[in-house]
Design a protein that fits this description.
- The protein has helices spanning about 50-65, 110-115, 120-130, 135-145, 150-155, 160-170, 175-180, 195-200, 225-230, 245-250, 305-315, 315-325, 330-340, 380-405, 425-435, 445-460, 465-470, 485-510; strands at about 5-10, 15-20, 25-35, 75-80, 85-90, 95-100, 155-160, 185, 190-195, 215-220, 235-240, 260-265, 265-275, 285-290, 295-300, 350, 365-370, 415, 440, 475-480.
- The protein has two domains: about 5-250 and about 445-475, ATPase, nucleotide binding domain (Nucleotidyltransferase, domain 5, 2-Layer Sandwich); about 300-440 and about 480-510, Nucleotidyltransferase, domain 5, CATH 3.30.420.
- Strand 5 (about 85-90) and strand 6 (about 95-100) form a beta hairpin.
- It is α+β, with helices and mostly antiparallel strands.
- The chain contains 18 helices and 20 strands.
- The chain is globular, with a radius of gyration of 23 Å.
């Protein structure tokens, strides 16, 4: 009896297979880390090894099924999710001829060349697709056309990684709009390939396959794929989506105006907005939402989780040692110190991630400003609290930018998920800085849970993906903002904005080194 759902997740750092029951409870899991290696002699390249990746995912499927005592015949439907921006090209026989991972940055020269064509060339693409050239497919395809013309000539279809999983299982090469929109050639209004942009890109329209909506049955597991994976031949494969969009479904962020802060290595701020609206300043990215009839504005705060890890590893050896001895998490002990510091972190101004500026995307040099040589004022607790407060300030600035251009009411509860949401202090800071109630979900694998919602919807368990997402989400707790801190944080935000602008000028002058710069910027 087909009683369960399987989601295959191809993330940036690992591949995984996750098994859910029909109520959305996770019961099986397997994960293996992978690395995306550079091509010899190609600076900034990051290839996606399809053969090795498929072998890894097949192992994960077997391990996940074994972990919960199930066999392939017990799976009612399979869906997939993956890193975004990564692309796969296929030849005449449907086999892969070239693939790159999401943060492949080989095409900086091609980005600069495209921007130089005219003052409005990039804007023309952005206004239709919601994407700039920084992360898009076109610069990479132009690199391939220039440097590997024999490979480019073989290409007959293009897809994203989650669609590639479906192609491996069913033989059907399709794309779904939530991830396909991240390659910059999809029309956000129609959720179909933009003929106008394909023509501007001087690409063959036949390269772009059929678009299917998330939660649509794409095809069924073939005999060959069944033999490889242990799944049953004929099992439906249901279109999933990009990791952030599927994660939004898994977090119940499925209605217009719903918003979330996803607090991981990078922090992402997402807001569901109506179609037809992009940011005229080109500061914020817009993608197709997994739920039809909506788009999703998205801003990214760079290296927030990595900044916290850097501080832990560089300055908190004592807390790490104590954590190992006590069985507590080192971050928990560092938060103990930060909780002894008053709101405002004694005026310390961290300079790490900037608010997102998609059209001119670069950061200042990592810095800590306004320190004191008084150890009672500038110490481990106050600096860590300042880092936490700054992440919340950047998120609030990004959310305000979305509200400004999209004119949506996102004043309701804000979903806060990811590793940062597990803290005791960080959620309270985010609530205080934004002035909004936070909802923190129980689920730890929100992206895969969104894929499970798609799979369940695809086989008729729910009438819509929106209904499925709302049914599967479970809430852990809520956090109420402390109004007494709002004015203090508004003032801190103003000081940070002035300080960050000055720090970027130091990068412009060549005095300091940018933390990160988008290709071609």
């Amino acid at each position: 009896m087909t009683t369960h759902l399987l989601v295959i997740d191809a993330g940036t750092g690992s591949g995984r297979a996750v098994v859910f029951d029909r109520e959305g409870n996770q019961i099986g899991f397997a994960q293996e880390e992978w690395r995306h290696l550079p091509e010899a002699g190609v600076p900034g390249s990051m290839s996606f090894d399809v053969a090795a990746a498929w072998a890894l995912l097949r192992r994960c499927i077997g391990k996940a099924l074994a972990a919960c005592g199930l066999a392939g015949r017990d799976i009612a439907a399979v869906s997939s999710t993956s890193m975004r921006e990564a692309i796969v090209l296929y030849g005449d026989d449907g086999r892969e001829v070239w693939a790159v991972a999401n943060v492949d940055s080989r095409s900086g020269a091609e980005v600069a060349e495209l921007k130089a064509r005219s003052a409005d060339f990039e804007r023309d693409f952005y206004e239709i697709s919601g994407e700039t050239f920084a992360l898009g497919a076109l610069p990479r395809l132009n690199w391939l056309r220039r440097h590997r013309p024999e490979t480019f000539a073989k290409a007959r279809s293009i897809s994203m990684i989650n669609d590639w999983i479906g192609a491996r299982l069913t033989g059907e090469i399709t794309v779904e709009p939530s991830n396909a929109s991240t390659n910059g050639l999809l029309d956000l209004t129609t959720r179909q390939w933009s003929d106008a942009l394909v023509a501007k890109a001087q690409l063959d329209r036949s390269l772009f396959p059929r678009v299917v909506e998330p939660a649509t049955v794409v095809g069924r597991v073939t005999r060959a794929a069944a033999d490889e994976t242990g799944l049953a031949e004929g099992t439906p494969f249901v279109a999933g989506g990009g990791d952030v969009q599927m994660g939004s479904v898994g977090l119940g962020v499925v209605a217009p105006g719903d918003a979330a802060v996803l607090g991981g290595t990078f922090w992402q701020q997402v807001v569901n907005i109506p179609p037809g609206s992009v940011d005229r300043t080109m500061r914020v990215r817009v993608n197709s939402a997994a739920v039809g009839g909506m788009n999703q504005a998205e801003a990214i705060s760079f290296f927030v989780g990595l900044t916290a890890r850097w501080f832990r590893d560089a300055f908190c050896a004592e807390e790490m040692k104590a954590a190992a001895a006590s069985g507590r998490d080192a971050y928990d002990l560092i938060e103990d110190l930060a909780m002894q510091v008053p709101a405002g972190a004694n005026g310390i101004i961290p300079v790490f991630s900037d608010a997102m500026d998609f059209g001119n995307w670069y950061h200042a040099a990592p810095s800590l400003l306004n320190l004191s040589i008084d150890p009672a004022i500038a110490n481990k607790g106050s600096i860590f609290r300042a880092i936490q407060e700054n992440a919340a300030i950047v998120a609030a600035v990004n959310l305000a930018r979305v509200e400004e251009f999209a004119r949506v009411d996102s004043s309701g509860p804000l979903t806060f998920a990811g590793g940062a949401s597990k803290g005791r202090l960080w959620p309270q800071i985010v609530a205080d800085v934004t002035g909004r109630q936070l909802r923190i979900p129980k689920v730890r694998e929100a992206t895969a849970l969104g894929g499970a919602a798609a799979a369940a919807c695809g086989i008729g368990q729910f009438a819509s993906l929106q209904e499925a997402g709302a049914a599967f989400v479970r809430w852990d707790r809520t956090v109420e903002p402390n109004p007494a801190n709002r004015a203090l944080y508004d003032e801190a935000r103003g000081r940070w904005e002035v300080a960050y602008a000055a720090q970027r000028k130091l990068v412009d002058a060549g005095v300091t080194t940018t933390m990160w710069r988008a290709p071609g910027t």
